[in-house]
Design a protein that fits this description.
single chain; about 300 residues; alpha/beta; Rossmann fold; Helix Hairpins; 11 helices; about 55% helix; globular
Length: about 300
């Protein structure tokens, strides 16, 4: 038995891809988690929500579909009900960009490099993109999706490594942990060498491998951040943060439709009342449309 889902949920599941365990943070009705099991893209799902009413709805849906043994329901706020090592993919949808940032900041534990995140903010996507790229997350996919007359950003990210030089709480915490891990490794190797009373070649090799892996991870996140955020100039960087880089590079038709709709909405507002904020947003959308259609990055006058 299948359930009908909209393009927003379909896009989120496509971004999540096939995985062992998918965690749906803020599951609400449970449709996304149920669809992941029924379509075989996840072998098991964990559905969490702070609302008991929502969890009851999800539990009834799982029971009706006969997938209870593949779908676990937990009550909790954000990542409070699940550990990062319990799932491969985490999906957070139906929350604004600010709410998603609060969820990511709320946990004491750091994600691992094996976790994938799919975010579908209903507003404030620019703030979310900025937070991700400044806190060690690499945005791997970023597309606007049209669903029932509304437009949603589906942002896929992985936690790679703290971005060098960024002045963030996440970096401070991660740098402290990394330094502690490095010191522990150094002490361990020294103790082994002391116990054996001789140079331990195996320990030296392991130390070299760890250092090389750390260097590769730093290079990976720096390369990703450079490609997504540190664009050719500040204007282009702001454009990517506001609208999503992939929408331009892959000529996303839903993004084109979104720009046309926003331009029409702002035009209609300005016909009745002058609003400087609205005028600035109108100009940024018009400039984004020009760039989309021509592929030429010209002066950007957005916020």
């Amino acid at each position: 038995m299948l359930i009908k889902t909209g393009k927003r949920i379909d896009a989120a599941l496509a971004a999540a891809g096939e995985c062992g365990v998918l965690c749906d943070i803020g599951t609400d009705h449970g449709y996304l988690a149920a669809a992941a099991v029924l379509r075989g893209t996840a072998r098991r799902v964990i559905a969490t929500d702070i609302s008991q009413k929502s969890l009851d709805k999800a539990r009834r849906l799982f029971s009706r579909l006969g997938i209870e043994r593949f779908a676990e329901v937990r009550r909790g706020d954000g990542f409070g009900a699940v550990r990062f090592d319990e799932a491969d993919v985490f999906v957070v949808a139906g929350v604004g960009g600010g709410g998603i940032i609060d969820i990511l900041r709320g946990g004491e534990r750091r994600p691992s490099g094996n976790n994938k995140f799919v975010f579908v903010p209903h507003k404030n996507s620019r703030e979310l993109r900025a937070f991700l790229t400044e806190n060690g997350y690499g945005i791997t996919r970023d597309r606007c999706v049209a669903d029932a007359g509304k437009f949603y950003d589906v942002i896929t990210a992985e936690f790679l490594f703290p971005v060098s030089g960024a002045n963030t709480d996440a970096n401070a915490k991660a740098d402290t942990n990394t330094a502690a891990d490095a010191n522990a490794c150094t002490d361990a190797y020294a103790n082994i060498n002391a116990d054996t009373k001789k140079y331990n070649f195996d320990c030296e090799n392991k130390a070299a491998l760890i250092n090389a892996a750390a260097a590769n991870m730093k290079t990976k996140v720096r390369t990703n951040a450079d490609a997504y955020v540190y664009a050719d100039d500040a204007e282009q960087r702001e454009l990517f943060l506001r609208f999503g880089r992939e929408n331009f590079t892959e000529k996303n038709p839903d993004f084109h439709d979104m720009l046309l709709k926003r331009i029409n909405e702002f035009d209609n507002i300005l016909k009745t009342v002058y609003n400087i904020e609205c005028e600035r947003k109108l100009e940024s959308c018009k400039n984004a449309l020009r760039i989309y259609e021509t592929g030429v990055f010209c002066e950007y006058t957005g916020i």
